[in-house]
Specification:
Blueprint (H helix, E strand, L loop, with lengths): L3 E5 L4 H15 L6 E5 L16 E3 L13 H20 L3 E4 L1 H9 L3 E3 L4 E10 L1 H5 L9 E8 L2 E4 L5 E5 L7 E4 L3 E4 L7 H10 L11 H9 L8 H10 L4 H10 L1
Parallel strand pairs: 1-2, 1-3, 3-4, 4-11
Antiparallel strand pairs: 5-8, 6-7, 6-9, 9-10, 10-11
Helix pairs in contact: 1-5, 5-6
Length: 254
């Protein structure tokens, strides 16, 4: 199997490593099957994206709609933007998580801003009729819990995007761009271990009131997000054997 490519941008090792481990866990991947590039650490080296089964864009403390950005954030966004351009142009398999909503949405012509930000918690995600019909989501129920925590979201979709999932507080929780580009606002890879790590690492980053860390930890611990993890496994299964042509046929048949 060709490996998947994880494009990460977390400078904090604890959060970056837990994100990588959670994708390995829920994608049932061996380390050699998920190649990680930490974009915040340096310039993106040239890569042939066709050497990978798919591209995964990880979450990040960066926010696309920030008014003021560090040089590192500007470089990461520029590198990711070029990759997203190629992925969209060639309709390559992509799973973009949380930060990916901002990167993909803004790059593809949508509007991303702070209107539908959500504090760290578990949200009830509901599939739209298009989501129910999408083969990638075939094994998921029409509603399930997943962890969220973001300062921005899509308020106007890129042209041609299809909304696959929504929630009461964030209208676009997942969309598809093209046939193989999947973008989620919620975190299908994030389990209790990874959300706990991120709460500790980013406790002063504005995702919640830092004085209420104990309450945040309590509310995420009471949630059952196991169903959401099936999305990661489904993406790996669908594209892990280079099966883009078969996936095309399934989507068209639906």
């Amino acid at each position: 199997m060709r490996p998947f490519l994880l494009l990460a941008s977390r400078a904090e090792d604890a959060a970056a490593d837990e994100e990588y481990r959670s994708l390995l866990r829920h994608g049932a991947l061996a380390p050699g099957e998920l190649v990680r590039v930490r974009l915040e650490a340096g310039q993106m080296p040239p890569r042939d994206l066709t050497e990978y089964a798919g591209v995964i864009i990880g979450g990040s403390p960066f926010t696309v709609s920030d008014a003021h950005k560090s040089p590192v954030q500007r470089r990461v966004e520029a590198d990711l933007g070029l990759i997203v351009d190629e992925v969209i142009r060639r309709d390559l398999p992509m799973l973009a998580l949380c930060y990916g909503v901002g990167i993909v949405g803004a790059r593809a012509g949508g509007v991303v801003d702070a209107t539908y930000g959500e504090q760290t918690s578990a949200a009830r995600i509901e599939l739209t009729p298009d989501g129910v019909a999408d083969p990638l989501l075939a094994d998921l129920p029409t509603a399930f819990e997943a962890y969220v925590g973001h300062k921005e979201a899509v308020t106007r979709l890129p042209a041609g995007a299809t909304v696959l999932a929504t929630s009461a507080t964030c209208p676009v929780q997942m969309y598809r761009l093209g046939r193989h580009g999947y973008v989620t606002q919620f975190h299908p890879e994030m389990d209790l271990a990874s959300v706990t790590t991120r709460i500790e690492v980013y406790r002063d980053s504005g995702y919640f009131d830092a004085a209420e860390v104990a309450a945040v930890l309590d509310r995420v611990a009471r949630a059952d997000v196991t169903t959401a993890h099936a999305l990661v496994r489904a993406f790996v299964h669908r594209y892990g054997n280079g099966a883009t042509a078969r996936a095309d046929a399934e989507l068209l048949a639906g």
